[in-house]
Amino acid sequence: MTDVIDGDAVAADVRDGLAGAIRTLDDAGVTPTLATVLMSDDPASETYVSMKQQDCAEVGIEARDVELDPEAPAEELFETVADLNADPSVNGILVQMPVPDHVEDRDVIRTIDPAKDVDGFHPENVGRLVAGDPVFKPCTPHGVLKLLDAAGVETEGADVTIVGRSNIVGKPLANLLIGKADDGNATVTVCHSRTENLPEKTRRADVVIAAAGVPELVDGSMLTDGTVVIDVGVNRVERDGESTLVGDVDFESAKSKARAITPVPGGVGPMTRAMLLYNTVKATSRQAEVPVDLP
Ligand SMILES: Nc1nc2c(c(=O)[nH]1)N[C@@H](CN(C=O)c1ccc(C(=O)N[C@@H](CCC(=O)O)C(=O)O)cc1)CN2
Known about the structure:
InterPro entries: Aminoacid_DH-like_N_sf, NAD(P)-bd_dom_sf, THF_DH/CycHdrlase, THF_DH/CycHdrlase_cat_dom, THF_DH/CycHdrlase_NAD-bd_dom. Homodimer. By secondary structure, the protein is α/β, with parallel strands linked by helices. Helix content is 40%, strand content 17%. The strands form 3 sheets. Strands 1-11-8-7-5-6 form a 6-stranded parallel β-sheet. The protein has a 3-stranded parallel β-sheet with strand order 3-2-4, with helices on both faces. The protein has a two-stranded antiparallel sheet with strand order 9-10. The model has no long low-confidence stretch (mean pLDDT 98). Bound molecules: ligand LMY7XDAE. The ligand Nc1nc2c(c(=O)[nH]1)N[C@@H](CN(C=O)c1ccc(C(=O)N[C@@H](CCC(=O)O)C(=O)O)cc1)CN2 binds next to α2, β4, α6 and α10.
């Protein structure tokens, strides 16, 4: 029997686990506050930001909604971030990606105060993660590690193949998985669009993590029986005249081979949002110097 890993349930556990920390902060007179900055009219980005704000409301985090005209000059975004950096009532800053083409995402990321960088994208936070001393683990990779743990998947000594080398998922996830922490110690292969013989790399893995942004790239023929499959993809495609959400994994064919698999929707996506709450609470605790227990 294949275990379909329920990301909604694991995310709910993370949210529940944050309640004590949020109470501790509240008792100290501090309300964790996250500013979301949206400079896009892409419906998917609008949906993600509004889901993140709902999540905040649900757990007692204050959400500040900042929306900028997608055609505004890049400087307007940089100034907005600078104002949020300087505002002591804001603990976390999230700039929803992607930003418009006329804005360099690395320039925006560098503008965010590393102490408020709850995405973990700032070079200082990336450097700390690579050095094995992360403050903010990026939300999606952190969510993937939590899902593996919840499914009872041991990473130590496992062969993990990651398909995708993005700065948001593939690269940080590879660094976390090769790290010496309890959720690391794996042997990691990172594949990408120039990788030769991808099926050979996925077939030899104990765990396959698909994060390439290519709908249904990984199917059952590319897997060995008993593989754990984590699908990070969230792709909108037209099927029978309707818009449907699919992952980077062909779920039905992969499920026939997998020991455990995440669905889309309801797998990694909810975990990305839950770990953003986690990082916001952590950022608040560090700034307020109020120690909290994190799940
Ligand atoms: N600043 C950031 N921008 C982006 C990030 C990020 O981590 N930080 N990641 C992605 C998108 N993303 C977060 O913003 C994200 C993707 C998917 C979901 C999610 O909950 N998906 C649901 C389905 C939602 C739907 O119906 O469309 C699921 O998979 O069940 C949340 C967040 C790019 N940008």
